[in-house]
Each structure stands twice: as structure tokens, then as C-alpha cells.
Amino acid sequence: MDATALSPEEARELAALRRRAYGPHPDIAADAAAVARLAALEAALHPVAGSASPPRTDSVVAQAPDAALPVAPARGVWPDEEPRAVIPPLGPREGRIPPWRRARAAASTAIGWFARRRAVTVALAFVVVVAIAWGGAQLAAPQSDRSLGRIPAGVDGERLARQGFLDAAGVTVAEVQRFEAYESLQVWVVLADTGDRCLVIDADRYGVLGFNCTPAGLDPVIDLRVWRGMREQVFGDLPPDSFLRFEHIGSRVHVWVRAPLDAP
């Protein structure tokens, strides 16, 4: 046999025998003829020094890619197969996590989840309590019969600021605010330079019917009773001894009306 090269058929035969001898499922040991043939082909491919044979001249010498493989395959690579990635061993810190550490990490995660859930539950409960308290306060507070909004004061506001009763009360006017009328009653709020708020109820035919000032933080209130003999158009169709309460709260003046039987 040629000691320098193998024919294509011999190269393929050698590759097949190598797979049977060194592959993932070797079975060549039970085949004595295959073992002998493999040894002959390996000897022909790797001759002993000094025993080279003359080159072949009867045909073109061709060498298959597998003929260049070594006698024994490289570690992790089998003949005619794709190279396999070799995974390096893990370092001392990359090894298996101890069970106690995994248990502690799981416990920490569970505790954090329960803590977040508890915080959310407490926040929601607080919001619900505040909403219930606010709603209860709104329902418990007496609802006014009328709510008067603010309107431009105009020249009447300038005239009111010059009234003598304000000077007599020691009120230095900083601003005059006018609100919607209740029947024939004009409603005013005078802001003093001291921060006081003065609620004024005025009737064209009778002049000032009510006047009350309160310091900051308190809402001014005026209580009026409809007395007999007063012109009915001032209070509308309210009967005598009816009771009215005016209170300036925020940006509006609220009015409560009670019939004679309901009046205190």
C-alpha cells in the first residue's frame, strides 16, 4: 500500500473506521477484520521512518480532508463532527449555592413582598378612613338653603366703604366684596386692613340690617328675624318670626332659613 498518500476511497474508509474506533459509540473491538484494516490504513498514512514507498504514477494522487486527522482525535472533538464547546470548570465562588443561603434569600424575598403588601394595605385603609370621615362630616353638617356667589361691587361698593357705621366700628376698609342678593337684601363682605372680615346685610328701604366682624380664622355670621310690620318684599314671602342666618364661608355666603315653628 502507498506509504505517502491514500486514495479518496481509502481516505473515506479510514475516516469511517476511525469513527467506529474513536467515536461516541465505538464498536470496532468486536470486528477483528475492521481492526486489522484500520491498523493497515494508519500504517500506510503514517509509515515508519525509512520505509517510504515510491510515489504512485498510475493516477492523480488525491488526499481527502479526513486524511490529515491524527491517529487519535483531539479531546472533545470526534472525526467528521463539529467541534464541541468545552465548558471550563466553575471557580470556587461560582459553584453550587449552599441550601442555607438559598433559603435565606427566599425568606428575604418573601419578607419584602409581605412588607410591601402590608404598606399598600395600610395606605389604602388610611385613604378609605379619610374618605369616610370627610363624607360623614359633609352629611352631618347642616346644608344651607341658599348659597350666594360673588358679583362685581361697582359704585355701590365704593358708597358702602364710605358709610359711617364702618368708621364707628373702627374698620379701615381694604376691600369691599359684593355677593348675590337674597330677595331684596344686599349682601356684602368688607375686608379690613387688620385681617378681619365683616359681613354686612343691607336693605335699600331700611339701611343696614346686620353687621358683624370676626378675626382671621373665624367665619362672620349674622342672624336676622322677620318682625311684624316689615315690608314683605324685603324678605320675600317669608312669614313674620321667620329666622335667617347668613354666614360667609370661603368664597360664598350661605343662607339658612327656618320657619317660625322651627326658629329657636
Keywords:
single chain; 264 residues; alpha+beta; 5-stranded antiparallel sheet; 4-stranded antiparallel sheet; 9 strands; 33% helix; transmembrane; membrane; transmembrane helix
How helix-rich are the residues, as a percent range? 25-40%
Rg (CA only):
54 Å
| Global mean pLDDT | 77
Number of strands: 9
The helix/strand order is HHHEEHHEEEEEHEE
Low-confidence stretches: 49-71, 73-79
What is the approximate shape?
rod-shaped
Could you say which structural class the secondary elements and strand pairing correspond to? alpha+beta
Outline the biggest β-sheet: 5 strands, antiparallel
Keywords: Membrane, Transmembrane, Transmembrane helix
Transmembrane segments: 119-137
Secondary structure elements and pairings:
Blueprint (H helix, E strand, L loop, with lengths): L7 H15 L9 H14 L53 H42 L5 E3 L1 E2 L2 H8 L2 H5 L4 E10 L2 E8 L4 E7 L3 E8 L6 E5 L6 H4 L7 E7 L2 E7 L6
Antiparallel strand pairs: 1-9, 2-3, 3-4, 4-5, 5-6, 7-8, 8-9
Keywords: Membrane, Transmembrane, Transmembrane helix
